[in-house]
C-alpha cells in the first residue's frame, strides 16, 4: 500500500526556528518538514562534513605528497584554466608550501595546448624536471599524456566524468569513479584539493590551519556550477563568510573593483557574477596565470595591480562577447533553429574563451541546450551549456559521429569538431536534446519564464525576510534562490535608468519598497497602476542598514 506523505507544515517550521511566514512557507514548499533537520540545513557546520575515509586513493595520494614534502622534492601542481582549476591549483600549492614543501604551479591555456593535460602541458611539466605531478580539475581523460610521464609520479585530483579505462597514475581522486565509496559525489575539484591537503597534514602530523583556504573552495565550487547541497553547502557557507570577514589580499583587491563592500554578506550570486567572471577573464583572452598570481598574492599592493589587470581583461571580454552574441543570434534566425530543442552556432575566429559565455547567454534567451563553437580553419572548439537539469554529457554521447572529441559533465561540457561536421552536429544535437527532454518529461522549448516560489507575506517586515533569505545561502545549482511574488502592488513611481534598466517605487500592504529590473525599461508600468512583481528580495547596502530592494525578474500589469 502506497503511503501518502503529509505536506510540510510552515507553522511548525516558523515556531520552531523563528522564521518569517514567507520563508517558512518557501521551505515547506521545498519539502522541509522536520525542524531539527531544517535547522542543520540552515546552519551547516564543517564538523558535519562526510568522513573522507572511503575516498579511494586519498590515503595513497597523501602519503606520496607527504613523502615529497619531507624530501624537498620538486612538485608541479597543474591546474585547468577555469576558476575551479585555478583555485584547486592554488589550494594544493599553498598547502604544500605551508607544510614546508617545494610546489611549482602551472595552468593549462586555451591557446597553448587547450583543455586538460595536453601534449603541450606534458612538455611544460617535463621541462621543470619534477619527481611528482599533481593535476587539478583535469586528468581523468588524459591517459595518453599521463602514460608518457616516464619516471615522474602522478596524482590526479578531478571531478569530471570517468572513462572506463584505468588511469596510469599513482593515485586518482575522483568521487565519480565507480569503485569510490565516498558517498557525496558533488565535490568540485577545489573541495577535493582541500581534502587532500587535510590528509597530507595528518600524514605529516603538522597543526596547519586550513580554514584560510575555504575562500578558494567557495569560489571554485560556485563558479563550476557544482551542486550547493551536502558537503558543498557547508564548505561554501564557511568560505563566503571568510571572503566577507577575512579576505586574502587578492580577493580584497578584486572585491574593490567588483563593487563588493567589505564586511557585507557575500552570496553565491556575488561569486558567480562578480568574482568568477573576473578570475576567468585572463584565461579567456590568453594565459590565465595573472588570476593564479592574484589568489596567491600576499601583498595588497601587488594584489591591486593584478586585480586591475583582471578588470581590464574583463572589459575586453565583454566587448568580444557582445560581437559574438550578435552574430550567433543572426545565425540562429538564418538557420531556422529558433524552434529546435537544441541549438548549435559556430563562427570563424570566435574566441574560444568567450564562446562558453555566449552559450550561457543563449540558454538564458531560448531555454534549451546550446553549443557555441569557435572555428579556426578546418576545426573548432566549443562550449556546451544548458538549463538546469540538462544532461549535456549524455546528449553529446549521442553525437559522437560528428565530434572529434568531447568532455565535461552534465551541467557544462566542451567539444572538438571539424568545421565540415558542424551542420551534422546541429542535426544530431537537436535530435538528442529532444529525445532526452522527452525522456524526463520536460518542455523542450520556450523562453525562460519567471515563476514564483512563494508570495511575500504581508505580515513580514521585508528586512526580516532578507535576513532569513541569507540563511538559505549559498544559492545556486541545486539550491535556487527564491523568487518571491508581490501581488497587486501600487506603482508610486517608475523611471528608466541608463542601459534600459527600470527603477520602481511601489506600495504593498502599507509599506513602500524599491525595485530594480535589468533591461526592463520597456516594461515600465504607469504610475498609480497595479502590478504583480516576481523577483529576489535583497538588502540594499547603498542605502544603509534596514533598506531592501526587489530585483525584478518579471512584471505583469493588472487590468
**Chain-averaged pLDDT:** 93
Q: Which regions are unreliable across 5 or more consecutive residues at pLDDT < 50?
A: 1-6, 442-449
Q: Into how many domains do the coordinates divide?
A: 4
Instruction: Characterize the largest beta sheet: strand count, sense, and whether it forms a barrel.
Output: 5 strands, parallel
Assembly status: single chain
**Structural class designation:** alpha/beta
Task: Briefly characterize the structure.
It is built from 18 helices and 16 strands. It has 559 residues and is α/β, with parallel strands linked by helices. Helix 8 packs antiparallel against helix 9 (214-223), helix 9 (214-223) crosses helix 10 (230-245) and helix 9 crosses helix 12.
Write the layout of secondary structure elements.
Blueprint: H1 10-17, H2 21-29, H3 35-42, H4 58-70, E1 74-79, H5 83-98, E2 102-107, H6 119-127, E3 132-136, H7 143-147, E4 153-157, E5 171-173, H8 189-204, H9 214-223, H10 230-245, H11 249-258, H12 268-285, H13 289-296, H14 300-334, E6 343-348, H15 355-366, E7 370-376, E8 379-385, H16 392-397, E9 405-408, E10 412-418, H17 422-439, E11 454-455, H18 462-471, E12 484-497, E13 501-508, E14 511-517, E15 530-539, E16 548-557
Parallel strand pairs: 1-2, 1-3, 3-4, 4-5, 6-7, 11-12, 14-16
Antiparallel strand pairs: 7-8, 8-10, 9-10, 12-13, 12-15, 13-14, 15-16
Helix pairs in contact: 1-2, 4-8, 5-8, 5-9, 5-13, 8-9, 9-10, 9-12, 11-14, 12-13, 12-14, 13-14, 14-15
Amino acid at each position: 500500500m502506497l503511503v501518502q506523505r503529509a505536506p510540510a507544515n510552515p507553522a511548525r517550521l516558523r515556531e520552531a526556528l523563528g522564521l518569517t511566514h514567507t520563508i517558512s512557507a518557501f521551505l515547506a514548499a521545498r519539502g522541509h518538514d522536520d525542524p531539527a533537520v531544517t535547522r542543520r540545513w540552515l546552519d551547516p557546520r564543517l564538523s558535519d562534513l562526510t568522513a573522507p575515509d572511503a575516498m579511494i586513493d586519498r590515503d595513497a595520494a597523501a602519503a606520496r605528497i607527504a613523502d615529497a614534502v619531507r624530501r624537498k622534492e620538486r612538485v608541479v601542481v597543474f591546474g585547468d584554466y577555469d576558476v575551479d582549476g585555478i583555485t584547486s591549483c592554488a589550494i594544493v600549492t599553498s598547502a604544500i608550501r605551508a607544510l614546508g614543501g617545494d610546489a611549482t604551479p602551472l595552468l593549462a591555456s586555451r591557446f597553448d595546448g587547450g583543455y586538460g593535460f595536453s601534449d603541450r602541458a606534458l612538455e611544460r611539466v617535463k621541462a621543470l624536471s619534477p619527481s611528482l605531478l599533481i593535476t587539478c580539475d583535469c586528468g581523468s581523460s588524459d591517459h595518453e599524456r599521463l602514460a608518457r610521464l616516464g619516471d615522474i609520479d602522478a596524482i590526479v585530483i578531478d571531478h569530471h566524468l570517468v572513462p572506463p579505462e584505468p588511469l596510469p597514475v599513482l593515485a586518482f581522486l575522483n568521487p565519480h569513479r565507480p569503485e569510490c565509496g565516498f558517498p557525496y559525489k558533488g565535490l568540485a575539484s577545489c573541495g577535493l584539493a582541500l581534502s587532500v591537503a587535510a590528509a597530507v597534514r595528518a600524514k605529516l602530523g603538522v597543526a596547519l590551519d586550513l580554514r584560510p583556504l575555504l575562500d578558494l573552495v567557495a569560489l571554485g565550487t560556485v563558479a563550476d556550477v557544482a551542486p550547493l547541497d551536502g558537503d558543498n553547502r557547508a564548505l561554501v557557507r564557511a568560505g563566503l563568510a571568510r571572503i566577507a570577514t577575512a579576505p586574502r589580499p587578492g580577493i580584497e583587491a578584486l572585491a574593490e573593483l567588483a563593487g563588493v563592500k567589505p564586511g557585507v554578506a557575500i552570496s553565491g550570486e556575488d561569486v558567480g557574477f562578480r568574482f568568477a567572471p573576473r578570475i576567468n577573464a585572463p584565461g579567456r583572452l590568453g594565459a590565465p596565470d595573472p588570476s593564479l598570481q592574484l589568489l596567491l598574492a600576499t601583498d595588497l599592493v601587488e594584489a591591486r595591480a593584478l586585480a586591475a589587470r583582471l578588470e581590464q581583461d574583463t572589459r575586453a571580454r565583454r566587448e568580444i562577447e557582445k560581437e559574438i552574441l550578435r552574430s550567433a543570434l543572426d545565425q540562429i534566425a538564418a538557420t531556422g533553429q529558433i524552434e529546435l530543442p537544441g541549438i548549435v552556432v559556430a563562427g570563424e575566429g570566435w574566441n574560444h574563451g568567450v564562446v562558453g559565455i555566449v552559450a550561457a547567454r543563449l540558454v538564458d534567451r531560448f531555454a534549451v541546450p546550446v553549443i557555441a563553437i569557435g572555428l579556426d580553419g578546418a576545426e573548432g572548439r566549443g562550449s556546451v551549456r544548458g538549463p538546469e537539469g540538462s544532461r549535456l554529457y549524455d546528449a553529446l554521447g549521442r553525437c559522437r559521429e560528428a565530434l572529434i572529441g568531447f568532455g565535461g559533465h552534465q551541467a557544462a561540457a566542451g567539444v572538438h569538431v571539424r568545421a565540415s561536421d558542424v551542420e551534422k552536429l546541429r542535426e544530431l544535437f537537436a535530435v538528442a536534446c529532444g529525445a532526452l527532454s522527452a525522456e524526463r518529461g520536460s518542455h523542450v522549448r520556450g523562453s525562460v519564464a519567471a515563476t514564483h516560489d512563494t508570495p511575500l507575506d504581508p505580515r513580514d517586515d521585508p528586512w526580516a525576510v532578507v535576513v532569513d533569505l541569507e540563511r538559505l545561502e549559498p544559492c545556486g545549482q541545486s539550491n535556487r534562490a527564491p523568487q518571491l511574488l508581490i501581488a497587486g502592488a501600487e506603482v508610486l513611481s517608475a523611471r528608466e535608468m541608463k542601459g534600459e534598466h527600470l527603477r520602481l517605487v511601489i506600495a504593498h500592504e502599507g509599506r513602500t519598497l524599491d525595485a530594480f529590473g535589468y533591461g526592463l525599461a520597456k516594461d515600465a508600468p504607469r504610475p498609480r497602476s497595479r502590478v504583480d512583481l516576481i523577483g529576489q528580495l535583497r538588502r540594499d547596502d547603498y542605502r544603509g542598514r534596514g533598506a531592501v530592494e526587489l530585483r525584478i525578474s518579471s512584471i505583469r500589469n493588472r487590468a
